[in-house]
Specification:
The structure is a homohexamer of 85-residue chains.
Chain A lengths: L2 E7 L12 H19 L7 E7 L4 E3 L2 E2 H14 L6
Keywords (chains A, B, C, D, E, F): Isomerase
Protein name (chains A, B, C, D, E, F): 4-oxalocrotonate tautomerase family protein
Family (chains A, B, C, D, E, F): Belongs to the 4-oxalocrotonate tautomerase family.
Chain lengths: 85, 85, 85, 85, 85, 85
Amino acid sequence: MPIVHITITREGSGPGRNAATAEEKAALIKGASQLLLDVLNKPLDATFVVIEEVELENFGWGGLPVPEFRKQLAKKSHGAPTAPE
Amino acid sequence: MPIVHITITREGSGPGRNAATAEEKAALIKGASQLLLDVLNKPLDATFVVIEEVELENFGWGGLPVPEFRKQLAKKSHGAPTAPE
Amino acid sequence: MPIVHITITREGSGPGRNAATAEEKAALIKGASQLLLDVLNKPLDATFVVIEEVELENFGWGGLPVPEFRKQLAKKSHGAPTAPE
Amino acid sequence: MPIVHITITREGSGPGRNAATAEEKAALIKGASQLLLDVLNKPLDATFVVIEEVELENFGWGGLPVPEFRKQLAKKSHGAPTAPE
Amino acid sequence: MPIVHITITREGSGPGRNAATAEEKAALIKGASQLLLDVLNKPLDATFVVIEEVELENFGWGGLPVPEFRKQLAKKSHGAPTAPE
Amino acid sequence: MPIVHITITREGSGPGRNAATAEEKAALIKGASQLLLDVLNKPLDATFVVIEEVELENFGWGGLPVPEFRKQLAKKSHGAPTAPE
C-alpha cells in the first residue's frame, strides 16, 4: 500500500526540453516502486506513484522563487576564486 | 476542520470526455463532505475538499505508468480462458 | 487509481472518546471508496484511502489553534442574543 | 528541513487578473520561509515552499464547489438586514 | 528541489518487528534521492525525502481497512485450487 | 480557502525541549494565516493550517537521514579552515 508522491519542478533535464519526458517519468515510477520492493518487500502492484510537476515560480528555496535562488547561488560561486563553475 | 484531498487521473468517465466533468467534481465534493458529517458529525462548513487531477503518464501502478499497467492487465485477462473481458 | 487523503483532528466524536474509533475509520474508508465508484466508476480495488489524524494544537483555523478558535466562536454565539447555542 | 505547501485557488486578487501574480507568489515564498526562521530558527536555505494552484471547480467548501458556496454566502448576507454587502 | 513523500503502513517487514527500522528508512531515503539524481540529474543535496507512517487501521484498500482487505485476499486465494498460498 | 501544510522535524528549538511548543505552533498558525491575508487578501477564517511533525529519522536530505546529514555538514565545516563553527 505504499504511496510515493514525487514533487518536481517543471523544467527540462537537457537542452531543447521544457519538462520531464514520458521516459523519465516512467523511470521514476519504476525506480520508486522497485525501491519499496527491495527495502520493505512491498509487491509492485501494491505501490502507487504520483508525479506532481510544479512551475518554477511556484517553488521556493532560500526564501526566493527557484529561478532567483539559482541566480544567487551562481553569483556566490563566481565570486569564490576556488570554486568556479 | 477535515480536509479531503482526492487525487484522480485526468481522463473521462465515458466516451467523448477527457476529464472529470464539473458535475462529477461537484458530486465528489458533496459526497466527501456529507461523509464527514455522517461519520464524524463534522458540519459541512468545516470541511474543505481539494480535487487534484494528474496526467495519466504521471501516475504509476505496478511499477508502470497507468496506460502501460492497464495494457498489461488486459493482456493477462485475455490469456486466461476462464476470465475473458 | 484514486487516492483519498482525509485529514482530521485527533478527538472523539462523543463523550468518553478521544479519537476516531476503528469503526468510524472503517466507515470513512468504505464511504470514500464507494464515492469514487459511484461518481467516476472506479473499482473499489483501485482506490487507496489514507486517514491522517492531527493533534488539535497542530490544526489552525481563523489564525488560531482549533481549541482557541472554537472558544472564540462560542463567545460570539453567546454574545449574539438572536443566536444562542 | 521544513516544507511549506500552500494550496490556493487559481483566481486573481483583483480586477484584470485571473491568477496569483509572480510577485504575489514570491511574497508567499519569502513570508513563509521567514516565518520558519522567526518561530523555529530554521535557516532560509533549509526551507522549501511549494505553491499549488487549484481550479475553482476543484475546490469545495460547505459541500459545494467554491463558486456555488460563495453565491450561497452572498445570498445569506443579502437576506440579513443588519449585514448587507 | 524534488520532494519525495513516501507513505507506508506502520508494520514490520519481518517477524519480531512492528515498524520499519531506522536502517530501512535510511535505505528508502538513499534510494529515493539517488533515483532523482540518476533520472533527472538532481543533486542529492537538492532533494528532501519525508517518510510518513500510517497505522494499519488508517489505511484503506478495496473499501476496507488494510487488515480486513488482506484477510479477504487470503480467503480468495485459498478458495482457488490452482493458487494456494 | 487556502490550506497551508507545514512539515517540520520533531525536535526542540532550544535546550530542554524535544518538540515545537504549543506557543511556537500557535505562532506558525497565526503567521501563515496572516501571510495569506496580507498577500492574497484571504480572510483569516478562510485559511486552514496543518502542522505535521516528522521524526528526525523519517526525514532525509542529501541522501541521508537528517541526523547523519547534519553530522556530515558539521564535519565539512570543521575541515574547512576558513569556515569554522
